[in-house]
UniProtKB/TrEMBL annotation:
Alphabetized Gene3D superfamilies for the sequence: Class II aldolase/adducin N-terminal domain (3.40.225.10)
Molecular-function annotations in GO: L-fuculose-phosphate aldolase activity; metal ion binding
This protein's name: Ribulose-5-phosphate 4-epimerase and related epimerase and aldolase
EC numbers for this chain: 4.1.2.17
Organism: Caldibacillus debilis GB1
Length: 214
């Protein structure tokens, strides 16, 4: 089997993603760049049909054109969005897309997520992108243009309007780590807005010497 260890790791990350509410039964998908030509990708309906309980045999080995070399699953329709991310950020090694519980609040309302935690400062602004229907070439184009605007910065995270979250980083584990950081930041952001409405919190415009290297 091609890339067995990488496929086992991808299965583990997909399971963690589902169990920790970083996606739901409505969807989500992950790709890992394993060479300049080949990618690993979770199959379509990984959440709805399998609740992210995948086996290495389920994981697809594909090229950038969507040709499947190995794996018993079918290609997700979000494939074009993932490839757009790799085109925009050649140093990227993994892309994770999910419907994270807390982050979906900001995505669904079309709001920029406040970046409040030290662990997410390296992301900079956490924007909600212009709306385009899920799985479309239009959405892939919007994602690509946003990632190009970050001038090669990694990691990158963005909210997909009415849809979910996309996180791009150099490795699968780094991308997953940043996804969890983002979700905790969303939780903090929601409660900060509640506390602000109750008069218990006032936002401070203060510069901090954040640790961006961890």
């Amino acid at each position: 089997m091609m890339f067995l260890e990488e496929r086992i790791d991808l299965c583990e990350v997909a399971r963690m993603m589902f169990d920790r509410y970083l996606t739901n039964a409505a969807g989500g998908n992950i790709t890992v760049k394993v060479s300049e030509e080949l990618f690993l990708m979770t199959p379509t309906l990984m959440s709805q049909a399998k609740f992210c309980r995948l086996t290495p045999e389920d994981i697809l080995v594909v090229d950038k054109h969507g040709n499947i070399y190995e794996g018993k699953g079918k290609l997700t329709r979000e494939f074009n969005m993932h490839m757009a991310a790799y085109e925009a950020l050649p140093e990227a090694g993994a892309v994770i897309h999910g419907h994270a519980k807390e982050s979906m609040v900001f995505a669904s309302l079309g709001m920029q997520m406040p970046n409040l935690t030290e662990a997410t400062q390296k992301l900079g602004d956490i924007a909600t992108l212009e709306f385009a229907p899920a799985t479309t070439k239009e959405l892939a184009k919007i994602v690509r243009e946003h990632l190009l605007s970050r001038n090669g910065q990694l990691p990158v995270a963005a909210l997909l309007n009415k849809h979910g979250v996309i996180v791009v980083d150099r490795t699968l584990r780094k991308a997953y780590d940043m996804f969890e950081r983002l979700e905790y930041n969303a939780y903090v952001g929601i409660h900060a807005k509640i506390f602000s409405a109750l008069g218990l919190y006032k936002e401070e415009r203060k510069a901090y010497n954040y640790n961006l290297e961890e």
